[in-house]
């Protein structure tokens, strides 16, 4: 315990001048911008964003009419839920922990294994996954076509399309809405923008450790992650609780042997809001997750003081949460398809 | 069909002057006020309403952390869902159709059988119902106490309480939030307030029929219902699909033989948004529900034209839906109780 105390007094970060730390940080990270980024080939309009928001919150996209995008990517809870794996159709569980939708637009690809290249492609996945929303593709369109308010809303969102109401356009609208779900103005962003007081001394120490220990080799860029693929357990395999042998990660996408147990490096943005952690969702404790990363990815047994400071730094990644006006959805009418019983 | 045409031309309402119709309507109905009503013994404050909103949207009040008040009383869908009976814990179904929370504050009691005297009492029901949210009473408090943001929010909402975080106070907060969920400014309200053009000619005909046929004997007052109990099938029992023999309604509350198959007369406010209909939720078609009411409650076989006009009038009961800023919920921390697996 004395050793920890000494480390606390002479922590790794305290030898560097603040300007040095800022310069080092700016080489690795970028702040979240204030405005939603544009999506290539899918220009935003207020009508398209509004349609996307309605679809995001509408449980009628699921076979049961009980599960919406927001059920598992809850915009009131860091864009995720708190289940190890989310509860889906008929109370089945998904295969991996629900990742946050917040700032997902900045990830290099979507899903833990990167099997969707962007938000638009991702949005089509859970809709038809039998353990998630469990809709048939044709059913989604039939369902929406039976709701007059959606027929109008698609026309307004896609004014130049001959056939505006389609699954592809639903995915486009959801994607432009999701691109608005960014969280600027985290203490760490303000630090990157030059406010030296935006981080506490402990958070600055944690940032220094994050850089020195090598965390930022993978968790870097605008999303402090989300930009590359790495094997989980590159130095030492964590226990089967965190890395069960049957989920081979990106190998299932690429069929390349070196992709076994490779996953997309997750964003650490808003990580304090999005427990539980790892693709299994089996760690409820951010400090534990930091420790596991140390041993499995860096071959470093972090001590309690280091874990505290890195965890404090991670707390500085919580940004302004999106302000959402809950959508009033277009009502079903007699001709609208009913939920399955 | 000729007969219907003649009835259409010389419909029951058309012989009355509009001022007469307005006077008759004002004797039976009152408009929804612009402001939320005060609750006796439970004064509102901005902090209490905000806390109530957070609790209303928070799935962590359920054992699974997957079901919130809003899951079945969706503020984007008329304050209800579209299931005959809602999907609850482990995909079980509730016993009766989920009634709308909108304007529920104006009902004389809560639940289809009136077993809760007010919103505050009602809010405690689904929380602990094993087929709904399935929490244990003690668990709700333990869960909330493990979330630091809630500890603060209860202190602010109940500043004079020695023990602010309690299940009773959670129910009070939810009740004051729900009291804000009112829908003023429906066309019918504007008509009652003197705007003769707020209803179409067909809707005025429908209102006249609604008065003449006797619908308003039960569906009256501010909520066009919600003010009394009546047997379903008072003239003629509807089929078992709509009135299954095993659900004896209010009899289970009072144990009074005359209360067999007695239910609270439901509000017709926003009825066009809240299909399906009846306590069984077995009618998806508002016109069908109107016809069944005619035969079962009034002994009147309404013709198609009458049903059309009454249904048109019911459409005038859709008011301004509450504008809700989706709450950012206080985050769980390591010490917070996890959802059941």
UniProtKB/TrEMBL annotation, chains A, B:
<dbReference type="InterPro" id="IPR004852">
    <property type="entry name" value="Di-haem_cyt_c_peroxidsae"/>
</dbReference>
<feature type="domain" description="Cytochrome c">
    <location>
        <begin position="201"/>
        <end position="318"/>
    </location>
</feature>
<dbReference type="InterPro" id="IPR009056">
    <property type="entry name" value="Cyt_c-like_dom"/>
</dbReference>
<dbReference type="GO" id="GO:0004601">
    <property type="term" value="F:peroxidase activity"/>
</dbReference>
<keyword id="KW-0408">Iron</keyword>
<feature type="domain" description="Cytochrome c">
    <location>
        <begin position="47"/>
        <end position="155"/>
    </location>
</feature>
<dbReference type="InterPro" id="IPR026259">
    <property type="entry name" value="MauG/Cytc_peroxidase"/>
</dbReference>
<protein>
    <submittedName>
        <fullName>Cytochrome-c peroxidase</fullName>
    </submittedName>
</protein>
<dbReference type="InterPro" id="IPR036909">
    <property type="entry name" value="Cyt_c-like_dom_sf"/>
</dbReference>
<dbReference type="Pfam" id="PF03150">
    <property type="entry name" value="CCP_MauG"/>
</dbReference>
<keyword id="KW-0732">Signal</keyword>
<keyword id="KW-0349">Heme</keyword>
<dbReference type="InterPro" id="IPR051395">
    <property type="entry name" value="Cytochrome_c_Peroxidase/MauG"/>
</dbReference>
<keyword id="KW-0560">Oxidoreductase</keyword>
<keyword id="KW-0574">Periplasm</keyword>
<dbReference type="Pfam" id="PF00034">
    <property type="entry name" value="Cytochrom_C"/>
</dbReference>
<keyword id="KW-0575">Peroxidase</keyword>
<keyword id="KW-0479">Metal-binding</keyword>
